[in-house]
Amino acid sequence: MLDVRDLTTTYGAVRALDGVTFTAPQGRITAVLGANGAGKTTLLRTLSGLVPAASGSARLGDTDLLTTPAEEMTRAGLAHVPEGRGVIAQLTVEENLRLGALGARGGGRKADLDRVTDLFPVLGERRHQVAHTLSGGERQMLVIARALLADPAILLLDEPSLGLAPRIVTQIFDLLRGLVDDDGLTVVLVEQNARSALSISDVGLVLDLGKVVVHDDAAVLVDDATLRHAYLGF
Ligand SMILES: Nc1ncnc2c1ncn2[C@@H]1O[C@H](COP(=O)(O)OP(=O)(O)OP(=O)(O)O)[C@@H](O)[C@H]1O
Ligand SMILES: [Mg+2]
């Protein structure tokens, strides 16, 4: 379980996170929602050690995330798929995947590579294609597959649906749901697309100006029209 308490992150005078407290239960999807600039990306970047916290705590099981260096996060069981679908453009799909397996807790066996290409058949078909020639959706699948190869306990995803066709979004979200239900993966899903995110999530967390304004079952957020109109835009 991810346990975050009173987490504050500042960029100079900007308090991007201001005393954020929540837990993300194991084997569940927690959707992190909120307007542009609410602090969603900062939350993920703080948890994965890419920006330092000013105060508070964040623990993943026994691991203190705030004192774990970013390069040791994979071994600690945390994988972060940042915004923007970064792949190594000149390498093939397979080479990108093999990089994801480096430093994996299980050592990145061939069986794992076969497993992610089962999950994303298109990546198997395109394993020898150079990554910069993939479509946006294929590239998003590649970065998620690469993160899964590290065999994470928790997967942090920053706007995986951005710019993708609705059909591809549904496909990726269904696959995430399957990984959570079948393998006990824990997911923290940052999304602008609140409606789709909540449809596959167990819990919803809404940030506003760096503070948690709602933290409840996803179904409660979906059913509360006032709250939806105020924060979620649907
Ligand atoms: N490197 C930085 N330096 C200064 N301010 C920053 C930096 N990164 C983010 N901020 C500020 O921190 C606040 C939170 O930004 P953050 O990127 O976490 O928001 P977000 O919820 O992910 O927004 P979006 O939905 O647009 O991606 C914003 O006011 C932003 O301008
Ligand atoms: Mg963001």
Structure description:
The strands form two sheets. A six-stranded mixed sheet has the order 6-7-8-3-9-10, with helices on both faces. A four-stranded antiparallel sheet has the order 2-1-4-5, covered by helices on one side. The chain has ten helices and ten strands. α3 packs parallel to α6. β4 (55-60) and β5 form a beta hairpin. It folds into two domains: 2-77 and 152-232, P-loop containing nucleotide triphosphate hydrolases (Rossmann fold, 3-Layer(aba) Sandwich), CATH 3.40.50.300; 87-148, no CATH class. The longest helix is centred in the last third of the chain and has 18 residues, at 166-183. It is of the alpha/beta class. 38% of the residues lie in helices and 26% in strands. The model has no long low-confidence stretch (mean pLDDT 92). Adenosine-5'-triphosphate binds next to β2 and α1. InterPro entries: AAA+_ATPase, ABC_transporter-like_ATP-bd, ABC_transporter-like_CS, BCAA_Transport_ATP-bd_LivF, P-loop_NTPase. Belongs to the ABC transporter superfamily. GO terms for molecular function: ATP binding; ATP hydrolysis activity; branched-chain amino acid transmembrane transporter activity. It holds the Pfam family ABC_tran.
